[in-house]
UniProtKB/TrEMBL annotation:
<keyword id="KW-0665">Pyrimidine biosynthesis</keyword>
<dbReference type="InterPro" id="IPR002082">
    <property type="entry name" value="Asp_carbamoyltransf"/>
</dbReference>
<feature type="binding site">
    <location>
        <position position="132"/>
    </location>
    <ligand>
        <name>carbamoyl phosphate</name>
    </ligand>
</feature>
<feature type="domain" description="Aspartate/ornithine carbamoyltransferase Asp/Orn-binding">
    <location>
        <begin position="149"/>
        <end position="299"/>
    </location>
</feature>
<comment type="subunit">
    <text>Heterododecamer (2C3:3R2) of six catalytic PyrB chains organized as two trimers (C3), and six regulatory PyrI chains organized as three dimers (R2).</text>
</comment>
<feature type="binding site">
    <location>
        <position position="52"/>
    </location>
    <ligand>
        <name>carbamoyl phosphate</name>
    </ligand>
</feature>
<feature type="domain" description="Aspartate/ornithine carbamoyltransferase carbamoyl-P binding">
    <location>
        <begin position="2"/>
        <end position="141"/>
    </location>
</feature>
<dbReference type="Pfam" id="PF02729">
    <property type="entry name" value="OTCace_N"/>
</dbReference>
<dbReference type="InterPro" id="IPR006132">
    <property type="entry name" value="Asp/Orn_carbamoyltranf_P-bd"/>
</dbReference>
<dbReference type="Pfam" id="PF02748">
    <property type="entry name" value="PyrI_C"/>
</dbReference>
<dbReference type="InterPro" id="IPR006131">
    <property type="entry name" value="Asp_carbamoyltransf_Asp/Orn-bd"/>
</dbReference>
<feature type="binding site">
    <location>
        <position position="162"/>
    </location>
    <ligand>
        <name>L-aspartate</name>
    </ligand>
</feature>
<feature type="binding site">
    <location>
        <position position="129"/>
    </location>
    <ligand>
        <name>carbamoyl phosphate</name>
    </ligand>
</feature>
<feature type="binding site">
    <location>
        <position position="80"/>
    </location>
    <ligand>
        <name>L-aspartate</name>
    </ligand>
</feature>
<dbReference type="Pfam" id="PF00185">
    <property type="entry name" value="OTCace"/>
</dbReference>
<feature type="binding site">
    <location>
        <position position="225"/>
    </location>
    <ligand>
        <name>L-aspartate</name>
    </ligand>
</feature>
<dbReference type="InterPro" id="IPR020542">
    <property type="entry name" value="Asp_carbamoyltrfase_reg_C"/>
</dbReference>
């Protein structure tokens, strides 16, 4: 049984197949409308979410399946002390697949050791968010036409931002991706991602403090929120919260075909005026998230659509 806990749990060929399937669903959603008839997705969200939970739910409903779950630990028996292991053993006897978000890093990995059905990590603490990465990859591939040979700037809270960790790991496996990490020293990308991921894969990377200094080099700018909920020291959060604000003046320094992505929610890091810039693609990005989650559910459940176009399979 396959789970998706880390963005590198899928090979590059498997990611390409998921993205290809998402493209097929975008082209002909009606062909997939009955694929999960009789199947149930459980959404176990111990931490708040808008996009990930609702897009998973929309994905399963659009595939003809049903959804059950909870959106906070306080509304489930977790509040009585039930463990993750026991919870997924129980829920796995009702549902066919589980999407789990947890504030503790590693909780979905633990869940996968006990669950009788596939577990999808929908974000664990400041660690990983692999389905956001699939969303980001589908967005970049759709809007830039490729996943190799481009320069990406990841800007903001690179320490606690799980979407950045997952995306950097995934992109490190594509050729010729140049990474520019833009953060204050306090929120720099974890050293293990540099030493265990980027250096072994010989990717070109650099770390800078100023967005203005590098924005003109970027093909993709990936803005992130400063993750207030992960700070132990609120004074430090207050000091850093507006360290990067993307506004029309900074956009004027960027290439005409750069795209701006953001996993959302945003707070102050992109001003509303930027939303009208055709290079602002973060609201397109969210829709790709639903389609890629449809593709992932079909993949992990092993559901084949007889009506779908057949593609030549690449080796893993
Ligand atoms: N991008 C993302 O994970 O958003 P939510 O926290 O709203 O799910």
């Amino acid at each position: 049984m396959r789970h998706l806990i880390d963005s590198t749990d899928l090979s590059v060929a498997e990611i390409d197949r998921v993205l290809n399937l998402a493209d097929d669903i975008i082209r002909d959603p009606a062909a997939y409308a009955e694929c999960c008839r009789g199947k149930i997705l459980a959404t176990l969200f111990y931490e708040p979410s808008t996009r990930t939970r609702l897009s998973f739910e929309a994905a399963m409903l659009r595939l003809g399946g049903k959804v059950e779950g909870f959106s906070s630990a306080s509304s489930s028996s977790v509040s009585k002390g039930e463990t993750v292991a026991d919870t997924v053993r129980v829920v796995g006897s009702y549902a066919d697949i589980i999407a789990m978000r947890h504030n503790k890093e590693g909780a979905p990995r633990v869940a996968s050791m006990y669950s009788p059905v596939p577990i999808i990590n929908a974000g664990d603490g400041g660690h990983q968010h692999p389905t956001q990465t699939l969303t980001d990859l589908l967005t970049i591939r759709s809007l830039k036409g490729k996943l190799s040979g481009f320069t990406i700037g990841l800007c903001g809270d690179l320490k606690y931002g799980r979407t950045v960790h997952s995306l950097a790991k995934a992109l490190s496996r594509y050729e010729g991706v140049r990474f520019i990490f833009i953060s204050p020293e306090e929120l720099q990308i974890p050293r293990h991602i540099i030493t265990e991921v980027l250096e072994p894969s010989h990717q070109d990377y650099r770390e800078v403090r100023s967005l203005e200094e590098v924005i003109g080099e970027l093909d993709v700018l990936y803005m992130t929120r400063i993750q207030q909920e992960r700070f132990l020291d609120m004074a430090e959060y207050e000091r850093l919260k507006d360290v990067y604000v993307l506004d029309p003046a900074k956009m004027a320094l960027a290439k005409p075909d750069m795209i701006v992505l953001h996993p959302l929610p945003r707070v102050n890091e992109i001003t509303p005026e930027v939303d009208n810039d055709p290079r602002a693609c973060y609201f397109k990005q969210v829709k790709f998230g639903m389609y890629v989650r449809m593709a992932l559910i079909l993949t992990l459940l092993g559901v084949k659509n007889q009506l779908a176009p057949v593609r030549a399979e690449e080796p893993d």
